[in-house]
Predict the structure of tRNA(Ile)-lysidine synthase.
Amino acid sequence: MLVHFLQQQSATRFLIAFSGGLDSHVLLHLSATLRATYPQWHFRAIHIDHGLQPASAAWAAHCRAVCEVLAMPVVNVALHLQIPSGASLEAEARQARYAAFAQHLQPGEMLLTAHHQDDQAETLLLHLLRGSGVDGLAAMPAVRAFAQGWLGRPLLTCSRADLAAYAYQHGLNYLQDPSNADTRFDRNFLRHQVMPLLQQRWPAVTATFARAARLQGESRQLLHESLQEKLPHYQGSRPGTLAVSQLRTASLALQAALLRVWLVNAGFQLPPAKKLGSVLHDVLLATADAMPCVHWAGCEIRRYRDDLYALPPLVAHDSTQIYGWDTQQPLVLPSVGVTLVPEMLGAWLPIVRDSGSAVTVRFRQGGEIMQLPYRGGSHSLKHLLQEAGIPPWQRECLPLIYVGERLVNIVGVLQVNP
Ligand SMILES: Nc1ncnc2c1ncn2[C@@H]1O[C@H](COP(=O)(O)OP(=O)(O)OP(=O)(O)O)[C@@H](O)[C@H]1O
């Protein structure tokens, strides 16, 4: 089954996530035995030492030794985790583990983990217990994009018993993590208490659950494809935004699904159900002049006029700063993440260079004026920004380029020539 899985992939380089436990030891061993017959495939392993158990350094040494015997190149990563008080140790370790995998995965390489059918059944149940929808119930896909390559799970069709039989047959010496027996953890409780009971009555329950997850995965994919097709019809007036009025014509279920796809496309973490509800009720239904904001880890949803924005949290910025600019080099403005280049001065550049006029970059304080000769006279910055539809939270962060005391460029919005 590993051969069949690998033959279906476009990748030819594989990084095996090797914890030293039964499942990943079998995966490592199977991969090592394939090398003679399939020289086009290249394998290496990675072991992460989370440093959370007294024996973890000895486990890392064991993994190194196993890889040496199998002549398998291995990357050893030792993590020094600081677990914030109140945080879940498991969740923090997992996050750090996947960050390390991502860091070491080469472009076009596929990370292989040893998740199997029993893991899949447990994952499905855990999601069911959390009240997940199709995304969660699809549990773990066999292949998904990951970092600069992919994450593949070639053993999803094998049961734990199959893997144990293989390990026994080949005399594999694998590690047993004592925490796997601790039924205070939900997954272990399902594994040791719930699944055996279900198996007494429905012997094929593990395979059945895994099939249910696979079917949900297919539904998820169809849904995803159809939503990606629909999304452009809901585009707002500015790049990356959604049109509130258009969204409101959709059913509630479609609104929620479109929001999720939009957020995932933009690389944001999905909101908890309650937050998504707030976006649907408080933001989409707000009056046109309201400026609601809903936020969760790494994301803020804001609305301005008819556009819905998803943004990284705004960082505090000192708008009283004034930068002098010699216009010879680009000017980096770290507080707003913008770099100005001399060409932004347009026809002012030769004048500035000849006359030696001072060029400064400022931010909005209130009361600024811009002269627009082609529209006759002076216009307030506030009015010009409103006219250009710039949302209020962006206004304080827009660099304003001055030649002497004359505002000549509202960066990204409006520029005037001499
Ligand atoms: N310390 C580790 N070093 C390298 N690979 C690991 C390590 N721990 C886990 N893995 C990989 O992840 C797979 C799943 O491990 P495990 O079931 O312990 O993790 P989980 O937290 O339950 O699942 P997930 O990684 O999906 O959250 C293992 O089969 C192995 O391939």
